[in-house]
Structure to design on (351 residues):
C-alpha cells in the first residue's frame, strides 16, 4: 500500500509538470539540512574545550563536597533508616516516619546533628569525586581507542556502552582508594545518643584496635558490586540525556539541563543499586562499638538474612529519603562540575 501511494504521488507529479517532485526535493533538502544541523551539534558536544588534570580533579572534588554538604540531613536520615532492625536500640525506629525521625534528631541531638559525620564525608567525597570524574574521562578516552569501535563512532549504542563501562571502572577505582573514609563516615552518622567514636582519627584508631586493619574494609564487596553499576548508570544516563537535550534544545540554560539530567540519572542509579547500598551500610556497622556481629555469611548471606527477617521491602528501607536526597544531590554535583569546567576552560582559553 505504501509503495502504491508513492507511485501514485510520482505519477500525479509527472501529470502536473513535476511540482510534486520539486516539493519532494524541497522536503528532502529541509530534512537533510536538519540532519546536518544535528550532526554539527553532536560534533560541538564531542569537541568541547578540554581542561587539565588538576582542573578536572578540583572540579570533581568541589562538586562532590558541595553536593554532600547541601544534602547531609537527608543522607543521615537514609543511613538511620537503612540500619533499622539491625540492633535492638534502632529497632524502635522501625515504623518511624521521616518527619518523626527528623524531629527526634532535633529534640535529642540538636539541629547540628543533621551534619554529624559531614566532615569525614567531605574528606571522603573530595578525593572520591575527583578520582571518579577524572578516571571517567580517562577510561572513556581509552575505551574509544578499542580497535573497530571507530566504525561505530556515531552509533548511540556504542556511546552508551563506552559511558557504562567507563563509569563502572571509574566508580570501582574511586571506591577502592577511598573506602576506609566511607566506612568511618557511616559509623559516625549512625551514632545517635551514645557516642562511641569521638571523631575521624578516634574512629580509625578504635576500628583498627577492635577489629584490625581489615575492619576498615568491611562491606567493600557489596560496595564494589554496587558502585560500578551505580556510577555507570549515573554517568551514562546523564550524558545521554544531556547530549540529546542539547541537540534538540541547544539554547536552554546549561545549569537547568545539568540539574534536570543529573536528577533523573540519580533516581535511575539509586533505584537499581539501593539494595546493595543497604547491605553495604549494614556490613559496615558489623561489630561497631563492640556490638555482636549480626551478619556472618558474606554479601549473599546478608541478603538472605534481610529478606527472611524483614521481607523484600527490607531491601528498600530508607528509599524515600534517598530519593529526596538524590534528586538535588546528583543534580548539584553535575551542575557544579559543569560550571567549574566552563570556568576553567574559559580561563585556559584566555591564557
Amino acid at each position: 500500500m505504501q509503495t502504491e501511494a508513492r507511485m501514485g504521488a510520482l505519477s500525479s507529479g509527472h501529470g502536473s509538470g513535476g511540482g510534486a517532485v520539486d516539493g519532494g526535493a524541497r522536503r528532502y533538502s529541509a530534512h537533510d539540512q536538519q540532519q546536518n544541523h544535528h550532526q554539527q551539534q553532536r560534533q560541538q558536544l564531542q569537541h568541547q574545550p578540554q581542561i587539565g588534570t588538576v582542573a578536572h580533579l578540583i572540579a570533581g572534588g568541589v562538586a562532590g563536597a558541595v553536593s554532600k554538604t547541601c544534602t547531609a540531613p537527608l543522607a543521615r536520615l537514609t543511613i538511620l533508616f537503612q540500619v533499622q532492625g539491625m540492633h535492638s536500640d534502632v529497632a524502635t525506629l522501625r515504623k518511624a516516619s521521616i518527619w518523626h525521625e527528623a524531629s527526634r534528631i532535633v529534640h535529642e541531638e540538636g539541629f547540628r546533628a543533621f551534619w554529624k559525620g559531614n566532615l569525614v564525608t567531605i574528606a571522603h567525597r573530595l578525593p572520591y569525586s575527583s578520582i571518579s570524574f577524572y578516571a571517567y574521562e580517562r577510561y572513556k578516552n581509552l575505551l574509544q581507542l578499542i580497535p573497530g569501535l571507530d566504525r561505530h563512532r556515531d552509533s548511540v549504542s556504542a556511546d552508551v556502552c563506552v559511558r557504562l563501562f567507563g563509569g563502572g571502572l571509574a566508580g570501582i577505582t574511586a571506591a577502592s582508594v577511598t573506602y576506609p573514609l566511607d566506612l568511618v563516615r557511616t559509623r559516625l552518622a549512625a551514632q545517635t545518643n551514645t557516642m562511641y567514636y569521638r571523631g575521624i582519627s578516634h574512629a580509625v584508631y578504635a576500628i583498627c584496635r577492635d577489629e584490625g586493619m581489615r575492619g576498615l574494609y568491611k562491606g567493600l564487596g557489596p560496595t564494589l558490586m554496587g558502585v560500578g553499576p551505580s556510577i555507570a548508570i549515573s554517568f551514562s544516563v546523564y550524558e545521554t540525556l544531556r547530549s540529546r537535550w542539547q541537540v534538540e534544545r541547544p539554547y536552554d540554560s546549561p545549569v537547568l539541563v545539568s540539574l534536570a539530567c543529573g536528577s533523573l540519572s540519580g533516581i535511575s542509579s539509586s533505584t537499581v543499586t539501593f539494595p546493595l547500598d543497604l547491605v553495604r551500610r549494614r556490613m559496615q556497622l558489623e561489630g561497631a562499638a563492640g556490638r555482636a556481629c549480626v551478619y556472618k555469611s558474606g554479601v549473599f548471606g546478608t541478603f538472605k538474612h534481610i529478606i527472611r527477617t524483614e521481607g523484600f521491602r527490607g531491601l528498600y528501607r530508607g528509599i524515600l529519603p534517598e530519593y529526596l536526597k538524590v534528586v538535588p544531590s546528583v543534580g548539584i554535583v553535575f551542575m557544579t562540575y559543569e560550571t567549574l569546567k566552563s570556568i576553567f576552560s574559559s580561563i585556559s582559553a584566555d591564557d
